């Protein structure tokens, strides 16, 4: 279930980030918190799928919404988000260590690769922090 919630959250965030939602279908979910915000985002995705005539995606999202409404609690969602932040912070620490080791070896291509991976991990950590505060 947690993987489903993470993937739905990621999909909703990606849709919002890339402007996939038509203006008339999108409802502003920013004032809502916890499960209510999650429901709102899934409903926006359903409206977008309907607008794109994507019946399979719409059906899947309707099922996900029903599951979320049946099982989502604000406390469970908060604890999942806290765990995600801890996981992302651990990944950032790991990537910082990798970068340090690459710098010690002195190979620029390895340093560049480690730097990119660190930046990616930091970006994921920042996104997890944003989700934690929603």
How much helix is in the residues? over 70%
The percentage of residues in β strands lies in under 5%
What is the overall silhouette? Answer: elongated
Q: Unreliable stretches, pLDDT < 50, 5 or more residues?
A: 16-25
The total count of helices amounts to: 5
Structure class: mainly alpha
Indicate the mean pLDDT. 86
Largest sheet: none
Cα-to-Cα separation, first versus last residue: 20 Å
Q: What is the H/E string?
A: HHHHH
What's the β-strand tally? Answer: 0
User: What kind of oligomer do you see?
Assistant: single chain
Query: Over all CA atoms, what is the radius of gyration?
Result: 18 Å
SSE map:
Elements: H1 2-17, H2 34-51, H3 55-71, H4 74-105, H5 108-132
Please tell me about this protein's structure.
By secondary structure, this protein is mainly alpha-helical. It contains five helices and no strands. Helix 4 packs antiparallel against helix 5 (108-132). The two termini are 20 Å apart.
Highlighted features:
single chain, 134 residues, mainly alpha, 5 helices, 0% strand, elongated
Short summary of the structure?
The protein is mostly helical. The protein has helices spanning 2-17, 34-51, 55-71, 74-105, 108-132. The chain contains 5 helices and no strands.
């Amino acid at each position: 279930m947690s993987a489903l919630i993470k993937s739905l959250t990621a999909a909703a965030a990606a849709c919002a980030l890339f402007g996939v939602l038509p203006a008339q279908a999108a409802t502003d979910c920013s004032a809502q918190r916890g499960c209510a915000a999650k429901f709102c985002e899934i409903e926006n995705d359903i409206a977008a799928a309907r607008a794109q005539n994507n019946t399979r995606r719409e059906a899947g999202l309707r099922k996900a919404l029903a599951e979320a409404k049946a099982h989502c609690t604000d406390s469970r969602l908060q604890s999942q988000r806290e765990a995600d932040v801890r996981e992302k912070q651990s990944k950032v620490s790991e990537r910082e260590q990798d970068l340090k080791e690459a710098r010690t070896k002195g190979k620029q291509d390895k340093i560049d690769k480690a730097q990119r991976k660190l930046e990616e991990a930091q970006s994921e950590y920042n996104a997890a922090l944003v989700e934690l505060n929603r």
